Amino acid sequence: MYLFVFIFTLFLLSAIIIYCDLKFAMLRDISSASPKPYSFARVQLAWWTVIVLSSLITTILTQGWQIPDLTESTLYLLGISSATTTAAALIDISDQNNTTITSLNQNDNGTNFFLDILSDKKGVSIHRFQTVVFNIVFGVWFIKTFITNLQIGTVALDDLIPDFSNNNLILLGLSSGLYAALKTVENKANA
């Protein structure tokens, strides 16, 4: 029962995200390209929002409509994703307003989902690859741990949603920070 509720919620929220992307380009860069390329930062924010929200909704629905206290690490995790999205948008806007930059990375046509989030002007880059892989690994761990906690049946309500260690949060924050820092120079190399 718990697993079904979680998977259903995860797929429903993912379908809503995909619909919003198809209708409003929600996961795409601010761009004049057609099709617009996918934005790693926006995809990362959607990834963690869907995972955390699915866990929260499943907890509420399966635990007698009780709302758990989210751990600080979960809030930090969403904060890292939000900060990455904000930084990427500010960098893109700054680059668009810089008249010395003649070719913007985000204005190149989108290729496909994975190439868009892994690539800059020079192709697939190691810093983007690292950030994507860390987010996938920690996301899968989060889902597995949450499902295991539900199935055990003796885990306290506030402990159902996994708690990241400080070092893991630092790793995710550094990885996202590296992405944002190197994004600042992606278009300037073309100026």
Structure notes:
The protein has 191 residues and is mainly α. The chain has one domain. 66% of the residues lie in helices and 2% in strands. It is built from 6 helices and 2 strands; from the N terminus they run ααααββαα. The chain has a two-stranded antiparallel sheet with strand order 1-2. β1 and β2 form a beta hairpin. It is elongated. The N and C termini lie far apart (56 Å). The model has no long low-confidence stretch (mean pLDDT 93).
How would you concisely characterize the structure shown here?
The protein has helices spanning 2-24, 40-62, 72-97, 113-118, 126-152, 166-186, and strands at residues 119-120, 123-124.
What class, by secondary structure content? Answer: mainly alpha
- Cα distance, first to last residue? 56 Å
Beta-strand content:
under 5%
Q: If you compute it from the alpha carbons, what radius of gyration comes out, rounded to the nearest whole angstrom?
A: 18 Å
Number of helical runs?
6
Quaternary organization: single chain
> Which regions contain 5 or more consecutive residues with pLDDT less than 50?
none
> Into how many domains do the coordinates divide?
1
How are helices and strands ordered from N to C?
HHHHEEHH
Give the overall shape. Answer: elongated
Helix % is 55-70%
Strand order in space, largest sheet = 1-2
- Summarize the biggest pleated sheet: 2 strands, antiparallel
The overall average pLDDT, rounded, is 93
How many runs of DSSP E, i.e. beta strands? 2
